[in-house]
Design brief:
Layout: H1 2-19, E1 44-49, H2 52-60, H3 64-67, H4 74-87, H5 97-103, E2 107-112, H6 117-137
Helix pairs in contact: 2-4
């Protein structure tokens, strides 16, 4: 069932990309509760968060050679951000990434992307080391 849902979502995204229209509202709803929990689900995740304007500016500032043959342009980025927002609405408890992991008791590090890189790296490193210490001690 999981593969069928992924195929359907991919098909819808491709269809929208070809039309060049934002159809995020028409994407089929996914019942994440129906997925079986298995050992492939992480015990801890890092959720990067930031304002849309910051993300768009970061892409705008990328060198052209890095953007070549990609979807890193304003139109495609805006479309994908709208789709993400539609699927990640916190009011849709099962869909939002934070809600999905919280509901399953998975620890989340919420990392702001606007913080200086050194600060982000330290925060992530602390989170990873915490995981490593627990694993090393067998907790």
């Amino acid at each position: 069932m999981k593969k069928e849902v992924k195929k359907e979502v991919k098909k819808e995204i491709k269809k929208d990309a070809k039309k060049g229209k934002d159809k995020a509202k028409d994407v089929p709803e996914i019942d994440y509760d129906s997925f079986k929990v298995n050992t492939n689900i992480p015990q801890k995740v890092i959720l990067f968060e930031g304002p849309e304007e910051f993300i768009l500016n970061r892409v705008k500032e990328m060198p052209e050679e890095k953007k070549e043959n990609t979807h890193y342009n304003k139109e495609d980025m805006t479309r994908r951000l709208e789709e993400y927002k539609a699927r990640s609405d916190e009011s849709q408890e099962n869909v939002a990434p934070a809600s999905f992991f919280n509901k399953r008791g998975i620890e989340i590090l919420r990392q702001g992307i606007e913080a200086p890189e050194e600060e982000q790296a330290k925060s992530i490193l602390d989170f990873i080391e915490k995981v490593y210490i627990f694993l090393s001690l067998g907790w």
